[in-house]
Specification:
Layout lengths: L3 H8 L3 H32 L4 H27 L12 H6 L3 H8 L8 H33 L3 H29 L11 H27 L6 H6 L5 H9 L2 H30 L6 H29 L1 H16 L8 H15 L2 H20 L4 H28 L13 H10 L2 H16 L4 H15 L2
Keywords: Membrane, Transmembrane, Transmembrane helix
Pfam families: MFS_2
GO molecular function, one term: symporter activity
Length: about 475
Amino acid sequence: METPTEKKKKREVPLKISIGFAVGEISDMIAYQGFSFLIFTFYFSLVKLPTETITLVFILWSIFNAFNDPILGAMSDRTKTKKFGGGRRRPWIIAMLIPLPAVMFFLFTPPLGNTTLSAIYFFIIICLFDTFYTAYSLNHTSLYPEMFTTDSQRETVGGARRILMVIGLIIAFILPGFVIKDLTFQNEDPVTFTEYKIMGIIFGFLILITLLIHLKFGIKEPSVDELEKKNTLSFWKSLTTTLKNAKFIVLAIASTMNWYVFGLLPMIIPIYATYVLDMDNSLLISSLLLIAFLSSIPGVLIWIKVDSKLGSKNTFIISTIVWIISFIPFIFITEYWMAAITMIVVGFGLGGAPFLLDLNISNIIDEDELQTNQRREASYYGIHALLIRLSTIMTILSVGFILNTNGWRVYDPDTVTPDLIFGLQSLMSFFPAGALLISLIFLGLFPLNKKRVEEIHKKKLELHNI
């Protein structure tokens, strides 16, 4: 019989595991946020695809994800192999060691001179990117509630994840400013195409290095023999059980609104800063996102403390209110220093969203385990990935609407009207604030409050004899 002290020590997360696992966030952020920051600007400003073509490609991409993400999630939950290092999640991550870094370069190598060929290439390459990224990300993310089973473990590792996430975001948003001198192609210098390709190579190299560190020090899975002892739901049973979980769907809708904002900011800031704030320095443009993500670090630490007192649901509600308020001033802002100060407050609200989303999804998965006697992280994260991809359609429709209705069907830096400026300001204020207001409504409907979560965790500890 273990003593309470021995049980407490058993629950502590070694620093090497905590940091090693959190390093996986750097890979994740470089890949997805680097993609989000550059892909729209590249195909709109450099390749000069019309906005309706880009919108169509993103919609078709999201339809592709409707099948890709949940299928990969269900397949991951059913994986039990001794290949690729053995286990359930590790083999998937190892399998992505080469494809994910490589695709970062090929994102920026479309055929030029033919709009149709460029659009077809754009669609194919982002589908490949999403397949490789999702195969890595959902398995990495699924390990979080699987490896770290108590509140204290998740808070410890969750804090480390958010801090290292910021490092990944800094790389994704600031490094391009050193490599790409003219992000929005104002000067139409052909060397900009080469700079985007170089950036893709650098992103790929950094993803490879951080993935290797993550695999070496941050992943601990049960043996294949242990996995073989556990029954798994059939593919369709797993999907339908997940989709019937009303709590999960409510949270996923709230999450979709958050991901709308996550996607909108990096997509619009290069154009917003160039034409609303009248900036032409790539580093200063990128610094707006840097400021937000640096200020999210103290934000995460504060939200962790609030979470321990009020619970994940209530803390999420409070952080969302702060985030809504932070976007309102952008409708009036026309100078860099004002935008920079406001981004500090944006970052404070931003610090809560990813951290609290993961905690609340983990609580849903814990409750699901009590009902099904199975850990089905990847099924939940796969469906979650599908639903939040709807935010991509919302984002591109929002941006496309503003640009199309204000004279920018095709990018033209010489045609900038007051209506276009107001539209870009709206994309930085009314649009994100409105989406987060919808998120707030659904968070109010989410039933897993602090008391219920404590009951779930108590039963889970009894189930696992922890």
